[in-house]
Amino acid sequence: MDINKKKTDQADKPVRHIIALSGGKDSSALAVYMRGKIKNVEYVFCDTGEELKETYEFIRKLQDYLCTDITWLKSERDFRYYVDLYNGVLPDARTRWCTRMLKLKPYEDFIGDDPVISYVGIRADEPHRKGYISTKPNITTVFPFVEDNIRRDDVMRILINSGLGLPQYYAWRSRSGCYMCFFQQKREWAGLLENHPDLFEKAKSYEKFDPATGERYTWIHGESLDELAHPDRITQIKLEYEKRKSREANAFKGNLKLKDIWDGDLDDSEELACTICHL
Ligand code: SF4
């Protein structure tokens, strides 16, 4: 990809080149892949304050690898402030105020009115995904992995060859993002309970039941974390996950190209998930 061909409308101002890191595998691999290809690249991490410690560890590891500072962006207000502001209504895939207030706003404030090329790690095997495309006219979004046909296996190779490997949470979770993200699958909630019981409790503390209206504010539609945490329910969730994996493995036999697309533990919410959080 010839970066020099990318232009913005504000030719008189120097163009800033920015890679936003989520602490996930694709944005991290993009930072490694683009190293040396762009001059004066800036790396940023939008910290919601509700990230896993494994994410922070991986961002620091990446910073050491890149031998440069990663700018840590944070909203002036924390997640609890916004939950209270929205009267206890938790964010969901439709409203996703958390992404807007805790990720996008700090990112856009950091950019200001400068002409920016924003590099996004959507892969060539993710045609269904949409990147964070800013409506700000001074931001041009580019997708180097799509342009260079970099797929999931390539991303894995980039991370392994760099010595970074994968963030540790991939052992029980399929994507980056806040520990209480509503885009999680139920088996990931079960993973949170097993790996970070304290954070599971913290996520539970955000759920509310209004006895006056009967309204339940839960992370998962129709099920509270208290209900999910019941040992029988956890066993059931794990069994269902194993069955699904086995169904998928059989379905994809003989169609390796399709398997390449779906092998990332994709579920329905993946298409909706915010790329600034989950790449
Ligand atoms: S990771 Fe999930 S909970 Fe966190 S800001 Fe993004 S969408 Fe919201």
From TrEMBL:
<dbReference type="InterPro" id="IPR002500">
    <property type="entry name" value="PAPS_reduct_dom"/>
</dbReference>
<dbReference type="GO" id="GO:0003824">
    <property type="term" value="F:catalytic activity"/>
</dbReference>
<feature type="domain" description="Phosphoadenosine phosphosulphate reductase">
    <location>
        <begin position="17"/>
        <end position="170"/>
    </location>
</feature>
<dbReference type="Pfam" id="PF01507">
    <property type="entry name" value="PAPS_reduct"/>
</dbReference>
<dbReference type="InterPro" id="IPR050128">
    <property type="entry name" value="Sulfate_adenylyltrnsfr_sub2"/>
</dbReference>
<dbReference type="InterPro" id="IPR014729">
    <property type="entry name" value="Rossmann-like_a/b/a_fold"/>
</dbReference>
<protein>
    <submittedName>
        <fullName>Phosphoadenosine phosphosulfate reductase family protein</fullName>
    </submittedName>
</protein>
